[in-house]
């Protein structure tokens, strides 16, 4: 009986090892190269979740820091929902019992802390514009080039400098072409302001 038991243990160990290797082989086959356009609230969440799933993720952000459309918001902006509702579930505010209405700069600071907590900066090309995106057979071809960063009153130079230092990613002067299996477009619909036309400006 002891001999049979010993052989059963060996078979179980071998079977577990084969399953373990097969699982990792399966995960490697499923690993994808994914490009994310935009490092605003949506783009940051997409980058974070895809990285946790084991994918190879590269993000492109036209501005010099995270924040997306909130980077270009007007002075004294106030969000229309509380910090409890707008915060990510993976990083809730410290005092959830007393939610507040964040200003635009406070929300950007929160997004910056979120990117720092999950080490997202090193996957983001800042001051980078997507010039073209084209489907070629089973992959996407993305052309990107560097752009001059814009200054905004609600972002300090210290935040901009520290963000660019954390990224470590930069493009050559002539730009660069990337190939991806999938693309996530997270640039939103409000990149270009839609201002009312007033009769005295016509």
Task: Explain what the structure shows.
This protein is α/β, with parallel strands linked by helices. It is built from 5 helices and 7 strands. It has helices at residues 2-30, 41-52, 83-86, 104-117, 157-167; strands at 33-37, 56-60, 124-125, 128-136, 139-146, 176-180, 182-185. The strands form 2 sheets. It has a 4-stranded parallel β-sheet, covered by helices on one side. A 3-stranded antiparallel β-sheet has the order 4-5-6, with no helix packed on it. Strand 4 and strand 5 (139-146) form a beta hairpin. The longest helix is centred in the N-terminal third of the chain and has 29 residues, at 2-30. The protein starts with a helix and ends in a 17-residue tail after the last strand. 27% of the residues are buried. The model has no long low-confidence stretch (mean pLDDT 81).
